[in-house]
Automatic annotation (TrEMBL):
Organism field: Eubacterium aggregans
Keyword Transcription regulation: no
Record-linked SUPFAM superfamilies: 6-hydroxymethyl-7,8-dihydropterin pyrophosphokinase, HPPK, Tetrahydrobiopterin biosynthesis enzymes-like
Domain 7,8-dihydro-6-hydroxymethylpterin-pyrophosphokinase residue range list: 206-217
Segments traversing the membrane: none
Any one GO molecular function term: ATP binding
Identification of the protein by name: Bifunctional folate synthesis protein
């Protein structure tokens, strides 16, 4: 990915833990690296195909001056998210905020915070076998798509499938969607579980009936194993009710552990 760099933009603002910092203010030095594809701009010499770094600097200056935060970490997060939302061509951003007048009572050149944030692609499985199944799935899609930090970019057809695991329950309605999101995996999981809770999802019996089931299948090419989250989903390559709808919207995507495409995995589990 190409990069546009903004180096050491000086802004006078009022961020800090101490009350006097919020009143008197001090200098902050901000640098940003914008990860963006500049190929089309370079070939056409058209600014509209790139990022106007003058506008980026004005955005940084305004957000930094117009707000008061205790922590540099908060300012960095607000700047990164704001720039990613304001300038859609930015795929990823690195923000460095330096505080050369940090009041610590010791000789210090600068204190700083540096973060990297960007857009990610996640694939989510949807399922329901209680109540108005289609409405549960539709509501989940609409809720995700209504968020400022996420948008649904593709949605599969809904597929009626027999129950998995516990067989004495109603058929499921299953689907899959692609999500363009700023949320890291753990925060995305929290959002999905919140949507499930709003649909009155209860976790009583493993593989039992549920109003709504939302699972992260893939997240970029990430491999993650924690006590609460496994990416890729550990059962996805065995489940036709996951792979069939996923293959509708992302047949070319490769499983980051198995190395095979969704389409190839789908053919292995369906006759």
């Amino acid at each position: 990915m190409d990069k546009i760099r903004i180096k050491k933009l000086e802004v006078f603002a009022k961020h800090g833990v101490f009350p006097e910092e919020n009143v008197l203010g001090q200098k902050f030095v901000i640098s940003a690296t914008l990860h963006v594809n500049t190929r089309q701009a370079g070939c056409t010499d058209d600014l509209a195909q790139s990022i106007n770094y003058g506008e980026v600097c004005q955005f940084i200056k305004a957000l930094t001056e117009d707000n008061v935060f205790k922590l540099l970490e908060t300012l960095a997060e607000k700047l990164a998210q704001g720039l990613l939302l304001q300038f859609p061509k930015i795929a990823k951003i690195d923000i460095l905020i330096e505080k050369p007048w940090a009041p610590i009572g010791l000789p210090l050149e600068t204190a700083s915070v540096e973060i990297s944030r960007g857009w990610h692609t996640a694939y989510i499985a949807l399922g329901s076998n209680m109540g108005d199944k289609k409405d549960h799935l539709d509501t989940a899609v609409k809720t995700l798509n209504s968020r400022e930090d996420s948008s649904v970019t593709a949605i599969s057809d809904y597929l009626v499938t027999p129950p998995y695991g516990v067989l004495n329950q109603d058929d499921f309605l299953n689907g899959a969607l692609a999500l363009h999101t700023l949320l890291p995996p753990e925060e995305l999981l929290d959002v999905l579980q919140g949507i499930e809770a709003n649909a009155h999802r209860e976790r009583i019996i493993r593989w039992g009936p549920r109003t709504l089931d939302l699972d992260i299948l893939l997240y970029d090419d990430l491999v993650l194993d924690t006590p609460t989250l496994h990416i890729p989903h550990i059962e996805m390559h065995r489940r036709d009710f996951v792979l069939i709808p996923l293959a509708q919207i992302a047949p070319w995507v490769r499983h980051p552990v198995l190395g095979e495409t969704v389409e190839a995995l789908c053919k292995q589990v369906t006759p």
